[in-house]
Amino acid sequence: MEPPDIDKELGMMCYLTNDFSSGYLRRRLSDFLVDEVLDGITASSAMRNGFDGKGGYFLYVIAKTMPVDFLRLKSVVSSLLGIRVDKIGFAGMKDKRSISFQFATSEVRGRSFCKGDGITIRLVGKYDKFLAPGIGSGNKFIIGIRETCPEKAVNLAKLASRGFLNFYGYQRFGYKRPFNHEIGRMILQRRFKDALEALAERGFKVTPESDYIRSLRSVGVGILRILVQSYQSFLFNKLLSKRALDKLNPMEGDLVLGRDGWVRRYDGRQEGTLLIPVPGAYTKVKNPYMDKLLKEMLKEDNISLDDFLIKEIPECSSLGSLRPGISIAKDLKVFVFGKTVFMSFFLNSGSYATVFVREIVKPRDPEMCGF
């Protein structure tokens, strides 16, 4: 089945299955619930019962019951706790249009309980690490698909739960031009004036300066970093799509993630999940086929791997990483109510629930369908 144009523009050029259920997400905010998991404990449970941990960091749970994006959430949390935003650690971003429970840490003790702007925060215990992306176990989701074909939705959910393409999801890029990754591409190409104009078009407040770098910095380094990371996500999606359309099984020279958690070079014997590069300055690809694909993509955009070392804005530089090409939805449970299907499942940190549900619904207009 052919994906819609917006999927292709974000690098998601295929599916693993052919059938589709149709349907809509987020007809109500309560149709999309995210509950972060840390050391086997959900954030919602920790908010009720506390967290029995040790360490030098204060551990909080943040409950969000209104649509708030991550940058705004960080600002509100900082203000409510009375702690500088750079002193608060998060394991990852949660979907803007969801009810979510997530953990946060700080070296400094803020208020034990506070609320405002649809956000409630409670101090639940201590933790031994400053939270950062990748530290949490993952997230538990409860998602409702309305106006769907229940039989197809249930069958496809069971099938996709065993393995779906681990794309970066729509929320990583935005839905309207200029997409996040397009502005990130401009930054990497050192087209700073174009990037400023695109940010202004998107509604960002840009301080006019003759010095384009200073003007970009006025937007906020955190936002600029997200834009560059979005371009990396776009490259990853394209690489994964091309592998899925050709040969998804590991090939000689690929890196694979074994069941024991170790990363190994595939030589035809190991079992494991194919790892796809998230390209950056230190990315090295030993598989000649993958190396050729990546070089062609970068050449098409007039970018080299060295360009990911951004001397003009060093904080936005990226060395690159690896990401599994396939993800699984664990502990899947499905409930049918007429033409509405609710499902609960767990995804490892970094995987997108909307990408899992995309494999089921295959929306023709993702934005209209609530993705």
From TrEMBL:
One BP term from GO: pseudouridine synthesis
Entry-linked InterPro entries: PsdUridine_synth_cat_dom_sf (IPR020103), PsdUridine_synth_TruD (IPR001656), PsdUridine_synth_TruD_insert (IPR011760), TruD_catalytic (IPR042214)
Keywords: Isomerase
Gene3D superfamilies named in the record: TruD, catalytic domain
SUPFAM superfamilies: Pseudouridine synthase
Domain TRUD: from-to ranges: 163-328
Keyword hit for Isomerase: yes
One MF term in the entry's GO annotations: pseudouridine synthase activity
Domain of life of the source: Archaea
Family: Belongs to the pseudouridine synthase TruD family.
PANTHER family referenced in this protein's UniProt entry, alphabetically: PSEUDOURIDYLATE SYNTHASE PUS7L, TRNA PSEUDOURIDINE SYNTHASE D
UniProt protein name: tRNA pseudouridine(13) synthase TruD
Species per Swiss-Prot/TrEMBL record: Candidatus Methanodesulfokora washburnensis
